[in-house]
Amino acid sequence: MKRDCTLVLLTLNEIDGLSMLWDEIPVDRFNTVLAVDGGSTDGTREFLSAKGVPILDQPIPGRGVAFRVAAEASRDARIVYYSPDGNEDPADIERLDDLLIEGNDLAIASRFAVGSINEETDWMRPRARVNQTLTWMANKLFNEGPFVTDTINGFRAMHRRAFLDMDTSVKRFPIEYQISIRAMRRRWKIAELATVEGQRAGGESKAISWPVGKDHLKVLLTELPGSRLFQ
Ligand SMILES: Nc1nc2c(ncn2[C@@H]2O[C@H](COP(=O)(O)OP(=O)(O)O)[C@@H](O)[C@H]2O)c(=O)[nH]1
Ligand SMILES: [Mg+2]
């Protein structure tokens, strides 16, 4: 039987990763597979169409918008978000959904848990450290449950309705950070699995470090009134 779950592929010019990973993506295990595309011009859309994957467009750019477009279109109980750029191990896709089935509200593939490997090589180190600092702050300010080791990775799964009820406002990259923080505020059961992050397959990262870092801080500040500081 197929999973009562939608597998969402998030793409913006990911033809290299997509064609490299396609055979490993467990599309036949999911009730629904769809892509939200941010306007690819590199053959990503043609590739998806040839594989029979419906493509949803987004009214404005950004991963935050894409998350919502997918959730609104899906009719399944659960959603796994997967970015086929080479960073995310397709072997973890079903494992994330399993964590939801086991009773968790949010399942995250962590790049910082025991047994994880983070893709960022030495000279990129600051990015991993900034990530961990943001994660530490989110835990300190909002989390009353077990420490969450990766609040930022986009490779994650949620119950669809609960995600829509969360009414996220972030349009771009820090969507995951807002979700993690709001999940903590709502005392969701958050589970992580240790993931091994791969190298980007081709193309370019769309996350430019400084503006994206700043956007994460902005999210932290907007969520602050709901933090433990004010309880
Ligand atoms: N649908 C959609 N996907 C996006 C958008 N921006 C980035 N992505 C995808 O999100 C994934 C992660 O983006 P990436 O640039 O690799 O960020 P990084 O992994 O943090 O360096 C990739 O699969 C991108 O193609 C967007 O605006 N819309
Ligand atoms: Mg990436």
Summarize the topology.
Elements: E1 3-11, H1 15-21, E2 30-37, H2 44-50, E3 55-57, H3 63-73, E4 78-82, H4 93-101, E5 106-110, H5 125-142, E6 156-159, H6 160-166, H7 175-185, E7 190-194, H8 209-223
Parallel strand pairs: 1-2, 1-4, 2-3, 5-7
Antiparallel strand pairs: 4-6, 5-6
Residues 10-12, 14, 36-38, 61-63, 66, 83, 85, 87, 205-207 line the site of guanosine-5'-diphosphate (GDP).
Description:
This protein has eight helices and seven strands. The protein has helices at 15-21, 44-50, 63-73, 93-101, 125-142, 160-166, 175-185, 209-223, and strands at 3-11, 30-37, 55-57, 78-82, 106-110, 156-159, 190-194. The chain starts with a strand and ends in an 8-residue tail after the last helix. Helix 5 runs parallel beside helix 8 (209-223) and helix 7 packs parallel to helix 8 (209-223). The chain is of the alpha/beta class and 231 residues long. It has a seven-stranded mixed beta sheet with strand order 3-2-1-4-6-5-7, with helices on both faces. The chain has a single domain, classed as Alpha-Beta Complex (Spore Coat Polysaccharide Biosynthesis Protein SpsA, Chain A). The chain is globular. The site of guanosine-5'-diphosphate has 17 residues, from strand 1, strand 2 and helix 3.
